[in-house]
Amino acid sequence: MKTKPLGILTGVTVCILIGSFCVFRLLAANNAPSSPPSISTPRPSRPDGAGKDPASLRMVSTDKIYRDEYLKSYSYRKFAPLLIKLSATLPTEVIACLRQTLAEREIAFADAKTEAFELKVDLQVYLGKQTELIRTRLTAKFGDQLTQAVESYIKTLPFRKALNEINLIMIYRGEGMSSIEMEQLCEVMAQIDTPSRSRVPTAEAIEAYVRTMEATYEKVQLAAAGFMSPKQLEVLRDELRMEISNMKSQRSDILAMAGRTK
């Protein structure tokens, strides 16, 4: 019958696909790192993979390889300004070692989040212990001064994305900030205290928060006036004004979610 060749062809195709998948998995396993990162999270008290299917464990292991590769690349971009700045005064081998250590830091935090979920422990407490562990190892490897430089940079991370976008507007206006000015503005933002939101939002608490943020942004502008041009300050002022408007626009939504109307 004419259906037999089609059945044979289908069977061959399935075999080829299965064979290709096996080869892919074998190559992935052979390309796995030969040793674990030097910064590791505290291990769970139970055996890893207890009660799990071996096939699913192999898949999780392969996924982690790809995730770790992504986190390494992400950390290189995340800490690029710091590493470039430090490379002006530190030997190449020290910068390379620090670059790798910061990549391991990203992986360690990702592992800690997974383990905290699996162990059903408080995430913030678990990450706090991981932070202390990383700080201890950074100090042991690079000393207090370099560790402090890393921690100071980390404090500026929440502001860098927004400031990069602001600087892009300045660049299009022909008033782009230099790398030195960018670092100065990041440090200004990090050093000026930002108030925390109230745990129990009320109309009064929201208004007080907005007023405090307006005063905070005024301090930012005054500090930035010492090294930014008038046109740069205009762009910065517009951005900060937009942030305040956004806070005010969310007032009703915040009160509604809290079950309040005033």
Describe this entry's structure for a reader.
The protein contains ten helices and no strands. With 262 residues, it is an all-alpha fold. It has two domains: 60-142, no CATH class; 156-262, no CATH class. Helix 2 packs across helix 4 and helix 8 packs antiparallel against helix 9 (230-249). The N and C termini lie far apart (80 Å). The model is unreliable at 1-38 and 40-47 (pLDDT under 50).
How many discrete domains?
A: 2
Radius of gyration, in Å, reads 26 Å
Order of helices and strands: HHHHHHHHHH
How far is the first residue's CA from the last residue's CA? 80 Å
Q: What's the mean pLDDT score?
A: 79
Continuous helix count: 10
Query: What is the molecular shape?
Result: globular
Count of DSSP strands:
0
Q: How does the helix and strand content classify structurally?
A: mainly alpha
Q: Tell me about the biggest sheet?
A: none
Low-confidence stretches: 1-38, 40-47
Helical content (DSSP H or I, runs of 4+): over 70%
Strand content: under 5%
